[in-house]
Design goal:
This protein is an alpha+beta fold and 279 residues long. The strands form two sheets. Strands 1, 2, 3, 4, 5 and 6 form a six-stranded mixed beta sheet that branches. A four-stranded antiparallel beta sheet has the order 8-9-7-10. Helix 1 links the parallel strand 3 and strand 4. Helix 1 packs parallel to helix 2, helix 1 crosses helix 3 and helix 6 crosses helix 7. The chain is globular and about 55 Å long.
Length: 279
């Protein structure tokens, strides 16, 4: 009888996002500030003694071997030679294709949790390196702190972020990231900045204009939230957020726009819930 243990996989917001160049291999060079929010998937894991990696509930149209959680478990197994396996169950709450990093977060939670459950005890840096082989956003979830990220997202520095609440709107579309990055109108030459403080940084998202062209629903969300402050898209979209100083303020704004758009009110986190799982 397998015993499952539940682990949180929080979503992220990009509080600012600039594209400052492009590598020869096509990867775009970014400067962005990541922070975690208290909207989270649940990753349930049960250690197996037969060495198998089993996903109990595959997502529709995603073969288990392509799922990031399965790939994360196999990558950790390969890196450590661990003979144990795992059964994985996913409870999804983070919208897919919304720019909130759900798949990357699920993968990072598998790495952090199995690092403990399998007792392989890799360092945080080693887990981040494995995470980078899975996707550019995976390392920051392993890093576990709000971060200023450079490169393709792997060069991480702790960044102070305010205590804040957020209204997040989901326009009920999945934005294809690859199409955004290949769009001819995408800004690829924003000036690089020295991140001294988020307070003195112009907050923007270089992908927002292109995504709004492609998806009027995203532009509608930005217009709706823009009546209350600096509404901005996260990641490659299509979720849009507004930062508020209190829960009451966020709830009031959400009530005003919720008749048009689905979404949620969330609290910003200062650390990943599994931050203590690696050193």
């Amino acid at each position: 009888m397998l015993t499952y243990v539940d682990f949180p996989a929080p979503a992220k917001l990009n509080l600012t996002l600039s594209i400052v160049g492009q590598r020869a291999d096509g990867y775009h060079l970014l400067e962005t500030v990541f922070r975690f929010i208290d909207l989270a998937d649940t990753v349930s894991l049960a250690v197996r003694t037969d060495g198998l990696i089993v996903l109990d509930n595959p997502l529709p149209d995603v073969p288990p071997e392509a799922d990031l959680t399965v790939r994360a478990a196999k990558a950790l197994q390969a890196a450590t030679g661990c003979a144990l396996g795992v059964s994985i169950r996913l409870t999804k709450r983070i919208p897919m294709g919304g720019g909130l990093g759900g798949g990357s977060s699920d993968a990072a939670t598998v790495l952090l949790a199995l690092n403990q459950l399998w007792q392989v005890n890799l360092s945080r840096a080693a887990l981040q390196a494995i995470g980078l082989t899975l996707g550019a956003d995976v390392p920051v979830f392993v890093f576990g702190r709000p971060a200023f990220a450079q490169g393709i997202g792997e060069d991480l520095t702790v960044c102070e972020v305010p205590e804040a609440w957020y209204v997040v709107l989901y326009p009920n579309i999945a934005v294809p990231t690859a199409k955004v990055f290949s769009h001819p109108d995408l800004t690829r030459n924003s000036p690089s900045v020295i991140m001294r403080s988020l307070k003195t940084t112009l907050r923007k998202n270089d992908m927002q204009r292109v995504v709004c062209q492609m998806f009027p629903e995203v532009a509608g969300c930005i217009t709706a939230l823009g009546h209350y402050g600096n509404a901005m898209m996260t990641g490659s979209g299509g979720c849009v957020f507004l930062e508020c100083s209190t829960q009451a303020e966020a709830e009031t704004v959400y009530q005003a726009v919720s008749n048009q758009y689905g979404g949620f009110v969330v609290n910003g986190l200062q650390t990943h819930p599994l931050f203590g799982s690696a050193h």
